Amino acid sequence: MLSKRIIPCLDIKDGRTVKGVNFVGLRDAGDPVDLAEIYSKEGADELVFLDITATHEKRKTLLDLVARVAERINIPFTVGGGISELSDARALLKAGADKISINSAAVKRPELINELSTAFGAQFVVVAIDAKYTEQGWKVYLRGGRDRTEIDLFDWAKECQDRGAGEILFTSMDHDGTKSGFANKELAHLSSMLTIPIIASGGAGNMVHFKDVFQQGKSDAALAASIFHFKEISIPDLKKYLNDENIPIRL
């Protein structure tokens, strides 16, 4: 069985790492370059860097900051924010990204997934999906959770896979920052219907939540932010706990 992955996430605004609850109330969490280096040394399996206001502000990802982070880490590095065409992805690759994450741009022009997968390979393409439960079921949201669509979470995830996405990063907006656990029911459903890896995001609050997301949510990877940024849980301690719980993890 493949090892489960622990992935710290750096949400970037104005060049700083930030974290909120349910996508609002952002507070400063530190320097992204310093945090990235710490997580790499502590044994994180990958790192995700999301420029969370790039799309909203209609600009590209902060390439200089991406390059500075890439210089300090030796783990796979996924970058997202403001990517809308192949040239954006090429620039991020050149700056040191190993994978790119697309969200709003993919919903607005789904062909972008096909283009990126064809140009760089499926393993390069992560489609991030922000979704929230509504009276009509789980709906996809855009622009950092600002805009609701009528697109169904599960239909969209399947289309992303069919178009060539290599992974799905699903963030439950209802769980984000609440530290109440991941959306395991929805994650398990995604895992059962797709053949590509699922990264769980939104809701990590303690070590048991990680065990649950792997056992109940059937996720391939778990992403978290505030519990790592504010040193509530250390990555080495978390990995030891998961190993003791017989969850396959790279120590």
Structure description:
The protein is an alpha/beta fold. The protein has a single domain, classed as Alpha-Beta Barrel (TIM Barrel). 36% of the residues lie in helices and 28% in strands. It has ten helices and twelve strands. The chain has an eight-stranded parallel β-barrel with strand order 1-4-5-6-7-10-11-12, surrounded by six helices. It is globular and about 45 Å long. The mean pLDDT is 91.
In brief:
Helix content is 36%, strand content 28%. The chain is of the alpha/beta class and 251 residues long. The chain has an 8-stranded parallel barrel, surrounded by 6 helices.
Chart the SSEs and their pairings.
Layout: E1 5-13, E2 16-21, E3 24-30, H1 32-42, E4 47-51, H2 63-72, E5 77-80, H3 86-95, E6 99-102, H4 104-108, H5 111-120, E7 125-134, E8 137-142, E9 147-152, H6 153-163, E10 167-172, H7 184-193, E11 198-201, H8 207-215, E12 221-224, H9 226-229, H10 235-244
Parallel strand pairs: 1-4, 1-12, 4-5, 5-6, 6-7, 7-10, 10-11, 11-12
Antiparallel strand pairs: 1-2, 2-3, 7-8, 8-9
Helix pairs in contact: 1-2, 2-3
Structure keywords:
8-stranded parallel barrel, 251 residues, TIM Barrel, 12 strands, alpha/beta, 28% strand, 36% helix
Quickly name the level 1 CATH class: Alpha Beta
Into how many domains do the coordinates divide?
Answer: 1
CATH topology: TIM Barrel
Biggest sheet: strand arrangement: 1-4-5-6-7-10-11-12
Shape: globular
Looking at this structure, what is the CATH superfamily? Aldolase class I
Q: Which regions have little confidence, pLDDT < 50, spanning 5+ residues?
A: none
- Please give the largest β-sheet: 8 strands, parallel, barrel
Helix content: 25-40%
